[in-house]
Amino acid sequence: MWGAKVKTPVDMPDDMLKDAVQTTIEKLGECENFDKDGNEVVASLKKYMDSRWTPNWHVCIGKNFGSFVTHETRCFLYFYYEINQDNKAVMMYKAG
């Protein structure tokens, strides 16, 4: 979906899903050195999601990881995106 490998089941409305994936791809594309500037990318995505889809979003980006989180219904997304031959795992969720 939009260049990302979205893991199923998806628990997010289509418009929110598309916005989250496309914004993440845009922000990762602007980042030249993720090891150095990755925290800024994550903070920028969190701020964007909070302003666009109301507050309390959490964003994690890394190589791969597991999680067990409690989130609001229809507000969870986990996907992989390859940038510069490097796979990034991205998890976004909203906790109330």
Automatic annotation (TrEMBL):
Look up the domain of life of the source: Eukaryota
Q: Where is the protein localized? A: Cytoplasm, Cytoskeleton
SMART domains, sorted: Dynein_light
Q: What is its main location?
A: cytoplasm
- Which Pfam family is one of those matched by this entry? Dynein_light
GO biological process: any one?
Answer: microtubule-based process
Sorted alphabetically, which SUPFAM superfamilies does this protein's record hold?
A: DLC (SSF54648)
Going by the UniProt record, its keywords in alphabetical order are: Cytoplasm, Cytoskeleton, Dynein, Microtubule, Motor protein
User: Which InterPro entries does the entry link to?
Assistant: DLC_sf, Dynein_light_chain_typ-1/2
GO MF term list: dynein intermediate chain binding
For this record, an example GO cellular component is: microtubule
Instruction: Provide the family line.
Output: Belongs to the dynein light chain family.
Question: What name appears for this protein in its UniProt entry?
Answer: Dynein light chain
This chain's source organism reads Triparma verrucosa
